[in-house]
Amino acid sequence: MTIAQTTAPVGTPIKDGLSALDRYGKLNRPDLSYTAEVAEATAPIYQKVKHIIPEIEWPALAPTIHAINKLKKERNAVILAHNYMTPDIFHGVADIVGDSLQLAIEATRTDADVIVQCGVHFMAETSKILSPEKTVLIPDMKAGCSLAESITGADVRALRERNPGVPIITYVNTSADVKAECDICCTSSNALQVVESFGVDKVFLIPDKYLAANVGNKTDVEVLTWDGACEVHERFTAQELRDYRKIEPKVKIIAHPECPPEVVAEADFAGSTAHMIDWVKTKQPEKVMMITECSMADNVASETPEVNFIRPCNLCPHMKRITLDKILDTLLEMKDEVVVDPVIADKARVAVERMINLKI
Ligand code: SF4
């Protein structure tokens, strides 16, 4: 998978002629033994994940979690973890958790110098766009996204040339290059409101054809789109959901709007990751099935032990590139810095801030 061209190659001098490693220096690898001190310091974290992570596995994870949490202070770093991170990252080392836009917005409110983005590359770019003065690192530069890779800035320019006057809305799951060419950004939470905010009868909502179709089903606005899809959510089928209901008649099924419309139609509720989490916490169903990436169900299950989760598991291979070991290496070596061309960043920021300023 190729990564957006706005990224400088690893090790390229990018700020005042210096790489992040030059600016911050390398730190020695800490001892990663499971000592009494580590056990005591990580005991409160284990309480949060004990329903998900077997006790026998904790001594293997705890030393790295403890080392990362100490290093964060030394580097004045903040760790942003997307809802699809594994529970050891999500509950163990993250300072801010949420969907990609929540993370980027919250990061602007911290006084950290360094952001470690535990998520995929477009998310790190969005953080850099909103916090250009901060150093943004990603633990694996190859963490891409099938949606973000489906379209380029040149594609958007061609779309605009062929459809003059039609507003182009981009889902946040795109590169900075694409955001820079669009009128406004949206998330899966606010896509419908953004579509209707233009007051016109036709808009483009790119690049996710399923999100666009699901939004189009709720509005009179004609929603044109692009042939992109999330490789995780498009694998779910309506038949699969019907089969689960036969086995578990009491189960409540909640789906992400990146799923095909026929899957969303079979669900009891459809919403963004944040809305899905709220729904489970508020409704406290006896049994629930989250039709989204597996780790999110694990993370919510840790916080709602009384709800029985049935997990039809689709993993995102890109999100799963981010591991505790790679986060530790990132903080020690200050490598894999994400940079965005300032001209592109300025244009992309306009699209993101327009959405934020809609206050929907
Ligand atoms: S879950 Fe889908 S949209 Fe999210 S990063 Fe993975 S491929 Fe991209």
From TrEMBL:
Cofactor remark from the record: Binds 1 [4Fe-4S] cluster per subunit.
Keyword list, A-Z: 4Fe-4S, Cytoplasm, Iron, Iron-sulfur, Metal-binding, Pyridine nucleotide biosynthesis, Transferase
InterPro entries for the chain: NadA (IPR003473), NadA_sf (IPR036094), Quinolinate_synth_type2 (IPR023066)
Pfam families xrefs: NadA (PF02445)
Subcellular localization: Cytoplasm
Single GO biological process annotation from the record: 'de novo' NAD+ biosynthetic process from L-aspartate
GO molecular function: 4 iron, 4 sulfur cluster binding; metal ion binding; quinolinate synthetase A activity
Pathway the protein acts in: Cofactor biosynthesis; NAD(+) biosynthesis; quinolinate from iminoaspartate: step 1/1
Binding site for iminosuccinate: H82, S100, Y171, V172, N173, S188, H256, P257, E258, T273
Residues that, per the record, bind [4Fe-4S] cluster: C145, C230, C316
Enzyme Commission identifier(s): 2.5.1.72
Keyword Repeat set for record: no
Cofactor(s) named in the record: [4Fe-4S] cluster
Class in the EC hierarchy, top level: transferase
Catalytic activity from the UniProt record: iminosuccinate + dihydroxyacetone phosphate = quinolinate + phosphate + 2 H2O + H(+)
Cellular component aspect of the GO annotation: cytosol
Family affiliation: Belongs to the quinolinate synthase family. Type 2 subfamily.
Role description: Catalyzes the condensation of iminoaspartate with dihydroxyacetone phosphate to form quinolinate.
Entry-linked HAMAP family: NadA_type2
The protein's name in its UniProt record: Quinolinate synthase
Organism encoding this protein: Roseibium alexandrii (strain DSM 17067 / NCIMB 14079 / DFL-11) (Labrenzia alexandrii)
Lineage: Bacteria, Pseudomonadati, Pseudomonadota, Alphaproteobacteria, Hyphomicrobiales
